[in-house]
């Protein structure tokens, strides 16, 4: 007997106090033992939950009274005899459905550019029974599927337009290429539950679609009211069920972890299917697959995309810490590395914009509230060139390990956004979202570990935090070292210096490094460094404090002092600091795995 109630709901509306709302929702879902995902943003809410009937009803009662705009929240239901979710997540997002360029959609209407927001001017909703009547009568109507290929391949309406999207971010450009004759007849957009169509409706109007509708409640509501009529196949859903049939019962389908293609029960029996790695649609021999990925990584890295002028757009969110301050003060405190003069210059030029005011320029002195967001645009951005040396060391269903060159930052920060290891790998592994498990300095070479899922990242990051990961470096230092082995336990400050470095501080964080001399030369020494703890710049600062800075270190001087700012010439070349060995417990097998590179 089916005893688990599955609900899906969304609504676009202005939400504030997101952190408080998130805490309240986490508390009540935990008390009610619900599982699933709730996404909150300033543009609205999107949720998928499952639990017993009383718990679901209690939750909906709470949610509908928590905000006047949610009192009429429409919910779609289905039943299962098992819990389709593993855990409960309540996330704060910039958008509940990502689309366009950072959430902005712009269309040219006559002689002006119109910015489109999802809340206003939504396309009319067409009830499922009305769409069925239109189709029964043969009314001239175009059905436009707004979903991704792995969804449309599983099922869609008869004769629907399939744009073959990899992600919903591709929809605006694909929709703009539809022929003019399609725009003249009624067009009914549809997706799983309606949320994507509601966001894109105003954009479609701006493109010149004369009669644009969205299927009310999406395919799931259509299944509730009209079952199989005019629909072929099943509907992909975003939980363990993978897909549901028109009677809303789970279908006999599976999903490939690697390419997200939906698979039949027969396809998972194929010799070209391996759980968590590949399926018949993306199968390649292991060596071929690794070689193809390596070639793609090298190609993307060699393009140095950040060196081609572009408009860099990034969101700045106002935290509780800086709420109530003038915008200029909040920006300087939130991102001190950018510099006050740079912020004032961008504000004066209108490069800091407010999405709530149709992306009008923000004022330096306006008082900001917690949760407010501003779009920072930097036209003509050109990033410094970086090393394109990235070797794929290992990959499996959970982890990706690479050996990086230098200079090459791991994360986007400061002057770097596109010319970063993470950005390059995200492109090479698209649509996967890799997560770095630890840090490695821009000018340090060697091993970096990425996780392919959030839960694996949590596991490995915890190992790094607890100091159980074995990390061994090969270092060349200035001068001839007298000792053979040395254990350095000098504490390091938590605070970052204006130069970006750290300092020794007896009251700071405990730090421990074991150094062993490997070779001595006339003016330098080769040392093996083994980290017992993992503090920022630990090896560099410890060696500098011992009078032997790392060769080509742009920041630290003998004795542990720092330059007032990094040496620009040294920043263009790698330091002689190389992470050549790493070992940890694999997040899936729980067995020790080790990697080493020269």
Describe the structure.
The strands form 8 sheets. Strands 23, 24, 25, 26, 27, 28, 29, 30, 31 and 32 form a 10-stranded mixed beta sheet that branches. The longest helix is centred in the middle third of the chain and has 18 residues. The protein is built from 15 helices and 32 strands. With about 600 residues, it is α+β, with helices and mostly antiparallel strands. α9 packs across α12. It folds into 4 domains: about 90 residues, Alpha-Beta Plaits (2-Layer Sandwich); about 150 residues, Oxidized Rhodanese, domain 1 (3-Layer(aba) Sandwich); about 70 residues, RNA-binding S4 domain (Structural Genomics Hypothetical 15.5 Kd Protein In mrcA-pckA Intergenic Region, Chain A, Roll), CATH 3.10.290.10; about 130 residues, 2-Layer Sandwich (Pseudouridine synthase), CATH 3.30.2350.
Averaged pLDDT: 87
Text of the CATH class of the largest domain: Alpha Beta
CATH superfamily of the largest domain: Rhodanese-like domain
> How much helix is in the residues?
10-25%
Main sheet specs: 10 strands, mixed
User: Rg, please?
Assistant: 27 Å
Q: How far do the termini sit from each other?
A: 59 Å
CATH architecture tag of the largest domain = 3-Layer(aba) Sandwich
Structural classification: alpha+beta
Shape: globular
Number of strands: 32
Low-confidence stretches: none
Quaternary status of these chains?
Answer: single chain
Percentage of β-strand residues: 25-35%
CATH topology of the largest domain: Oxidized Rhodanese, domain 1
Whole-number total of structural domains = 4
Number of helices: 15
């Amino acid at each position: 007997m089916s005893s688990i109630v599955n609900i899906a709901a969304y609504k676009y509306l202005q939400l504030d106090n997101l952190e408080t709302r998130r805490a309240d929702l986490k508390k009540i879902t935990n008390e009610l033992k619900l599982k699933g995902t709730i996404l909150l943003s300033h543009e609205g809410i999107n949720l998928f939950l499952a639990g017993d009937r009383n718990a679901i009803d209690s939750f909906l009662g709470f949610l509908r009274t928590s905000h006047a705009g949610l009192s009429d929240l429409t919910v779609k239901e289905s039943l299962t005899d098992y819990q389709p979710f593993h855990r409960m997540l309540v996330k704060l997002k910039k958008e509940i459905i990502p689309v366009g360029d950072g959430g902005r959609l712009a269309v040219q209407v006559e002689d002006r550019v119109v910015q489109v927001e999802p809340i206003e001017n939504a396309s009319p909703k067409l009830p499922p029974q009305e769409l069925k009547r239109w189709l029964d009568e043969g009314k001239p109507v175009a059905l436009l599927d707004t979903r991704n290929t792995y969804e449309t391949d599983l099922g869609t309406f008869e004769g629907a337009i399939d744009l073959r999207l990899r992600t919903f971010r591709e929809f605006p450009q694909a929709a703009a290429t539809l022929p003019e004759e399609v725009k003249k007849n009624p067009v009914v957009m549809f997706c799983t539950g309606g949320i994507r169509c509601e966001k894109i409706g105003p954009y479609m109007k701006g493109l010149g679609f004369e009669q644009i509708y969205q299927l009310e409640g999406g395919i799931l509501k259509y299944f509730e009211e009209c079952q199989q009529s005019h629909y072929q196949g099943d509907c992909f859903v975003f939980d363990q069920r993978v897909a549901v049939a028109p009677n809303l019962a789970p279908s006999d389908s599976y999903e490939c972890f690697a390419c997200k293609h939906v698979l039949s029960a027969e396809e998972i029996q194929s010799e070209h299917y391996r759980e968590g790695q590949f399926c018949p649609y993306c199968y390649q021999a292991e060596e071929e697959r690794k070689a193809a990925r390596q070639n793609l990584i090298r190609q993307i890295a060699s393009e140095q995309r950040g060196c081609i002028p572009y408009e860099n757009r990034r969101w700045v969110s106002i935290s509780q810490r800086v709420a109530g301050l003038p915008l200029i003060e909040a920006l300087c405190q939130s991102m001190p590395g950018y510099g006050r003069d740079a912020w004032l210059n961008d504000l004066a030029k209108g490069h800091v914009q407010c999405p709530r005011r149709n992306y009008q320029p923000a004022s330096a002195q306006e008082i900001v509230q917690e949760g407010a967001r501003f779009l920072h645009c930097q036209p003509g951005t050109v990033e410094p060139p970086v090393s394109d040396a990235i070797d794929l060391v290992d990959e499996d269903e959970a982890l990706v390990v690479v050996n990086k060159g230098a200079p090459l930052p791991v994360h986007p920060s400061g002057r770097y956004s596109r010319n970063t290891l993470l950005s390059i790998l995200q492109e090479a592994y698209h649509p996967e979202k890799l997560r770095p498990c630890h840090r490695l300095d821009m000018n340090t070479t060697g091993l970096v570990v990425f996780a392919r899922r959030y839960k694996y990242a949590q596991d490995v990051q915890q190992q790094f935090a607890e100091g159980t990961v074995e990390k061994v470096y090969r270092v060349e230092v200035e001068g001839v070292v007298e000792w053979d082995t040395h254990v350095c336990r000098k504490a390091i400050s938590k605070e970052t210096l204006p130069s970006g470095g750290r300092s020794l501080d007896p009251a700071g964080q405990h730090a421990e490094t074991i150094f062993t001399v490997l070779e001595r030369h006339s003016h330098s020494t080769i040392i093996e460094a083994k980290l017992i703890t993992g503090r920022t710049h630990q090896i560099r600062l410890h060696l500098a404090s011992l009078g032997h800075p790392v060769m080509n270190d742009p920041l630290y001087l003998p004795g542990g002092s720092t330059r007032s700012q990094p040496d620009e010439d040294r920043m263009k070349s790698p330091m002689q600091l190389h992470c050549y060995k790493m070992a940890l417990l694999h997040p899936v097998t729980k067995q020790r795995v080790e990697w080493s590179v020269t």
